[in-house]
Hints:
The chain is α/β, with parallel strands linked by helices and 940 residues long. Strands 10-8-9-6-5-16 form a 6-stranded mixed beta sheet. Strands 2-1-23-24-18 form a 5-stranded parallel beta sheet, covered by helices on one side. The longest helix has 24 residues, at 796-819. The chain is globular and about 110 Å long. The mean pLDDT is 94. It binds zinc ion. Residues 186, 188-189, 432, 434, 436 line the site of zinc ion (ZN).
Amino acid sequence: xxxxxxxxxxxxxxxxxxxxxxxxxxxxxxxxxxxxxxxxxxxxxxxxxxxxxxxxxxxxxxxxxxxxxxxxxxxxxxxxxxxxxxxxxxxxxxxxxxxxxxxxxxxxxxxxxxxxxxxxxxxxxxxxxxxxxxxxxxxxxxxxxxxxxxxxxxxxxxxxxxxxxxxxxxxxxxxxxxxxxxxxxxxxxxxxxxxxxxxxxxxxxxxxxxxxxxxxxxxxxxxxxxxxxxxxxxxxxxxxxxxxxxxxxxxxxxxxxxxxxxxxxxxxxxxxxxxxxxxxxxxxxxxxxxxxxxxxxxxxxxxxxxxxxxxxxxxxxxxxxxxxxxxxxxxxxxxxxxxxxxxxxxxxxxxxxxxxxxxxxxxxxxxxxxxxxxxxxxxxxxxxxxxxxxxxxxxxxxxxxxxxxxxxxxxxxxxxxxxxxxxxxxxxxxxxxxxxxxxxxxxxxxxxxxxxxxxxxxxxxxxxxxxxxxxxxxxxxxxxxxxxxxxxxxxxxxxxxxxxxxxxxxxxxxxxxxxxxxxxxxxxxxxxxxxxxxxxxxxxxxxxxxxxxxxxxxxxxxxxxxxxxxxxxxxxxxxxxxxxxxxxxxxxxxxxxxxxxxxxxxxxxxxxxxxxxxxxxxxxxxxxxxxxxxxxxxxxxxxxxxxxxxxxxxxxxxxxxxxxxxxxxxxxxxxxxxxxxxxxxxxxxxxxxxxxxxxxxxxxxxxxxxxxxxxxxxxxxxxxxxxxxxxxxxxxxxxxxxxxxxxxxxxxxxxxxxxxxxxxxxxxxxxxxxxxxxxxxxxxxxxxxxxxxxxxxxxxxxxxxxxxxxxxxxxxxxxxxxxxxxxxxxxxxxxxxxxxxxxxxxxxxxxxxxxxxxxxxxxxxxxxxxxxxxxxxxxxxxxxxxxxxxxxxxxxxxxxxxxxxxxxxxxxxxxxxxxxxxxxxxxxxxxxxxxxxxxxxxxx
Length: 940
Ligand SMILES: [Zn+2]
């Protein structure tokens, strides 16, 4: 039994000892790979492993192609998560301590040691260095070809200097702004938060949306209701209030606004100094009336338990003619209220909401999926094609899409409305990683990166246009993200990271300090080797090294760094840049990856803009999402021990295309494992075999192998690991197995087998290294040259004839299955020669698109004509089913001798007497059925 665990550890150590993945500039062509540096707050699972294994396949392939490849790796620490962990551990938070105990025990078994590490976590830097170290081990145990000399964390002082420079650059270009702006905000951290800080942040897509608040006069006060469709105010029939909720009176600019208590608590984060002047229970408002501010119409206040006091203002105004939710609520309430139609919509009558609800058969407010669909449909149609009716004053006759902005402006001027910001997300409630509620707040003096800048967007679009995105279908998502991105808060009041250089009380947040750091990898090892101090890393230093701005002499004088060192660093940056490949998960398109494009075009000249992004989907397990709460997470650290890195890589990269979710299934993993053993066994045996002679079947195998190398190479050039593995691994294993059944000997294909291990080195590097060394080679296979297909050995003709034999075997097998008994004798009849003439002509007519002439044209041939009715029957059949016409020209004598020479093989396969007879020499009725490429078979 092969001990893969031992083999893997052995080669990982050898690679490290010989430093074969450390890359320096050279005369070779370069290839620069970077995947996002991981966040150091918890362990990797196999989903991360998918991304890393995929990146490693690409990396190793390019090394073997003879390029000088660099893949470095750093660690991300910026923000509050690591701080929060330390704080909780300091406070003896039981749940957090248990969770991190579990994490630590993945790598450490001694309980004393676990406790020691855990208590060290009260210092944030220990959390960071612990996870950085375990990540490094995990990467190594996966076999990743990483240059570790260039590693860093985002709190290193050298890195801080680099980020300061980046922010000076952005500010100089006018891309950094400051002001009041609504942001996602954690009430507990008292800080703006981004995707990285939010639980499930990349999936739930939380964002702040502005609602229009309509002020309904209620005596001298106002009841306020929030909406995205202020134009519908003309059709309002009543207000909905939750009788069980608490409401408050709030002093807003000397007006009294009534909203839910929960809403008021959020609203205070959007407006400074608001004061609560009174409290009312929802039920006290029921039955009273408020006024429509636009037409003074009295609107009854009706009780509605569906009103969520924690959503927007906790008050809803009802427009049953045009809002499906309101229509259903009104119907269910039994209140006698007439609907007011205000929008004319093609294809609908006066009450589109009623029509769609009736046609979808919606009965209750609890049918939220259907109601959501109905609402979206009506909202969209009315917005783009609906025309306002006469009862809408000066807006009558206009399309909503044309007047909406004007209407809001008018209402605002008349002081009829206000704004309420609310968090909108695919899943609510939205929680910070610290556990606190995330709400919408307006911060004074908030700093932003202005991704809304039109000139900047233009440049980003240009960069994207010239980039390769794989799978290509995702390019559109990048285009869309560039369109909708706008100001984004780029700094927080607390957290780890780099202080804003022009306002150091603010810390640059984690999605803003992780955009162009690939440049930093190119020089950090020189900074350390030359003991350059952080204070020497001035903006002028980076300007020279990355942009060749300013004179080298002046930079030397200003920084105290010698000219030679400056030049080495500048040259190294110029050598590696631009980045050739960024590989990561699809979820990062809407943030990380698009910011990466924006910031590169902001800081660097066009020749340094990124070249390519490749992406992969997620991983689930046995049909379910992996999650801590279900308890089905497989930590990456378990892979080498339980499965082996090579098996993991093989399985994960072959199971699904990059754009498809991998569903980790134990049974499939085991199937891949047996194939891996099969591969290993074949190669081992081949290497031990005595050299033997080539046979006819070797010609076939060599042709197949050459074509498999070609296809595998093309697949990797297109960043398609699955197709690569299909050809390089699975097809070739099957071909060699078949070759052996056909009497081929492993001793005759030793050269082919050596090429084969090279072909597989990017996907199963450890096994390939071991087998390579068994072959007597002293070099690493990881550094060997990528195998070229031997084009001269490709013969489609030989492959086609071999396929005839495979088809014959398959046909015999199905006949045996049908009759259900062991055969004693199998007779194969090959057809008379005139049938070959017939079929050949049919093929010619088919490819000329003139099959309709077949009967006439073929029957003109003497040899065919002589067989009268039998011939015309065959022609009719072929015309009806042209798929039966063989793709290649089968020759009568070749087909016969193929079967004749394979008699021994057939005898062995079926353990029966085999006879091959030509149709003309047989009296069997069956023989007449023989056709070229489809011999007649008699099983007795
Ligand atoms: Zn928080």
